[in-house]
Amino acid sequence: MSQKIMAICDIEEGYAFRMAEYMLEKVRLPYTLHLFTAASELQKFAGREQIAVLLIAENALKLLKQEYIRKQVAQIFVLQESEHKEQEDLCYISKYQSPEKVVQIMLESVMDLGDWNLKDTKKETTARMIGLYSPVKRCLQTSFALTLGQILAKEHRVLYLNLETCSGFGRLLKKEFAEDIMDIMYYFLSAREKLALRISSTVQKIGALDYIPPTQYSLGLKEVTGKQWMDFLGDIAAIGQYEYIILDLGEGIQGLYELLKNCCKIYTITRDDAFARAKLEQYEQMLKFNDLEDIAQKTVKCRFPKFRELPENLEMMTHGELAAYVKSIVKEDIYE
Fold first, then answer.
1. Residue 120 confidence (pLDDT) above 60
2. For residue range 318-333, what is the model confidence (pLDDT) as tens digits?
3. Is residue 48 a contact partner of residue 34, using CB atoms and an 8 Å limit?
């Protein structure tokens, strides 16, 4: 089951980031947190997702279609910026007080109190990493990864990361991304303590599956060290927002084998032809020669049957022959 959503929206960026930062650092939220600094972006998001709790500045609320946003949001809290309440049926909270006080008022009023509490009572959650890597190219690895991610996301909180040098994601989704994984890595390296905040404002969705947009330029990806990737993923796991992190891996990154070693399960897709068999055999010999046999032990080799048709829409990957194949894999391997 996907996690409920809380959104913060304020066109005053500094305030919005400070409030989101406080939420992520000090409060144990039973929601996935999304941050918006443009009312139009919130309205687009609300068209795709149901929002459980919305904390929105008064000036931002005026820019929204009121009737529409009320249908898409279960409960709205308005950060009051003027002396008068324009809509008496909404819960107004004075914007000009500490984030702690704002949260306290919300705690007293929110309908779905759930597991809200202070961060120091939070239980540590470790996300399980699932890796996908194959020395054989054009083997439907990304299709497999996205199908696996969307199937798992029906019952779990899942983050998909594509670390290939040329993912083609933007073209497939016909979208342009303001930020991608290299922007998040930059923030991580320069202000590590704000990683959770940056992830919440950058993450996108395919169905119930969360993903950080892959890099558009491969040169930066190649400069990140294996240790930096491991620290980055370790911090994402420590945030406690995800149960699974799916890594769609290519050869263009440093620390590939270190990442694979830290996966609980690895899927290697191959094909039934001489070139594919030769590449796979060489890869397995390399693992053995370099004392990386623990990678081989965690690896499930998949050779797909011939699929008559594959979904072109990435949000439809849970339907069809490939999905049926992946569901059997999930049942046997992930939940073993």
1. no
2. 887 888 888 887 776 6
3. no
Token digits of residue 277: 């068999």
Residue range 180-234, pLDDT digits in tens: 999 999 989 988 877 877 787 788 888 889 999 998 877 888 899 999 999 999 9
Structure tokens, 282: 């060489």
Lowest-confidence region among 7-16, 67-76, 215-224, 267-276: 215-224
Cβ atoms of 181 and 212 closer than 8 Å = yes
Structural domains of the chain, with CATH: 4-121 (3.40.50.10850), 128-334 (3.40.50.300)
Which single residue is written with the structure tokens 């930059």? 186
Q: Which pLDDT value is given to residue 121?
A: 37
- Exposed, middle or buried, 303 (CB in 10 Å: 0-12/13-18/19+)? middle
The token pair at 42 is 């919130």
What contacts 318, CB < 8 A, 6 or more positions away? 147, 150, 151, 154, 207
